[in-house]
């Protein structure tokens, strides 16, 4: 089923309803549980977005975009409620040479409300390239090193776990990232959606991703660029080691 922007408006309203905070509650303890298939589909796009997506069988989805400045979309597959699991994914991610696009495990928690990303790869914009970003340290998970960052995007508290080598495909042990956030004082509330997805803000590109299926061949990784055009004016302690045990 091909989803175009016209239908996307209807879907985005539905998804937006799901994303409304449910009010303050005590979050349940994070525990690992048996995972079902990560086939729940999310499509959200603003009025400026130029994007087409296919919601295909199982965990498979495709996205093509040609975003003007001001466009924004989030598309992916996963679970309506996040939890501690080994989230496998595979596929291709091809942002254009001037595309501000992310490939990430993406989700929300409520009470407090936070938007989190486990950043696996991205186009031209590092999410920490912001004068209001803070780095809290690093930890290892799933064969790589991740840095923990946060910043406020308007009223939204954004949490970032950024892999220091970009990859497309592998396993994300979600609970390790949740524990890393909380170990540095970034509180998580009750879990909402959790997907492997594409977020695009400008530029063009294409992606084909399968949630729940690990790569069939070895994934080649490349170093994540560390050059920033906007240096953080807050603390930058990425050299600190975070204990997630």
From TrEMBL:
Keywords: Carbohydrate metabolism, Glycosidase, Hydrolase, Polysaccharide degradation, Signal, Xylan degradation
Catalyses which reaction(s): Endohydrolysis of (1->4)-beta-D-xylosidic linkages in xylans
Sections of the chain in a coiled coil: none
Gene3D superfamilies given in the database record: 2.60.120.180
Pathway: Glycan degradation; xylan degradation
Enzyme Commission identifier(s): 3.2.1.8
PROSITE patterns, alphabetized: GH11_3
Taxonomy, superkingdom: Eukaryota
Family: Belongs to the glycosyl hydrolase 11 (cellulase G) family.
Protein name, entry field: Endo-1,4-beta-xylanase
Source organism (scientific name): Stachybotrys chlorohalonatus (strain IBT 40285)
């Amino acid at each position: 089923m091909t989803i175009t922007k016209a239908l996307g408006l209807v879907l985005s309203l539905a998804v937006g309803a799901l994303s409304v905070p449910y009010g303050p509650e005590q979050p349940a303890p994070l525990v690992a549980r048996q995972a079902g298939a990560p086939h729940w589909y999310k499509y959200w796009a603003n009025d400026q977005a130029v994007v087409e997506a296919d919601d295909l069988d199982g965990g498979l989805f495709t996205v093509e975009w040609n975003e003007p400045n001001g466009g924004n979309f989030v598309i992916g597959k996963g679970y309506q409620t996040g939890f501690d699991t080994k989230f496998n994914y595979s596929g291709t991610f091809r942002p254009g040479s001037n595309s501000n696009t992310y490939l990430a495990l993406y989700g929300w928690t409520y009470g407090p409300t936070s938007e989190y990303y486990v950043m696996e790869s991205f186009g031209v914009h590092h999410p920490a390239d912001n004068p209001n970003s803070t780095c809290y340290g690093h930890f290892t998970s799933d064969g790589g090193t991740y840095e923990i960052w946060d910043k406020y995007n308007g009223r939204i508290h954004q949490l970032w776990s950024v892999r220091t080598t970009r990859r497309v495909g592998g396993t994300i042990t979600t609970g390790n990232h949740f524990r890393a956030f909380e170990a540095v004082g970034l509180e998580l509330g009750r879990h909402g959606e959790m997907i492997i997805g594409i977020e695009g803000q400008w530029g063009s590109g294409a992606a084909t991703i399968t949630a729940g299926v690990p790569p069939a061949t070895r994934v080649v990784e490349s170093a994540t660029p560390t050059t920033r055009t906007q240096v953080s004016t807050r603390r930058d302690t990425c050299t600190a080691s975070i204990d997630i045990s």
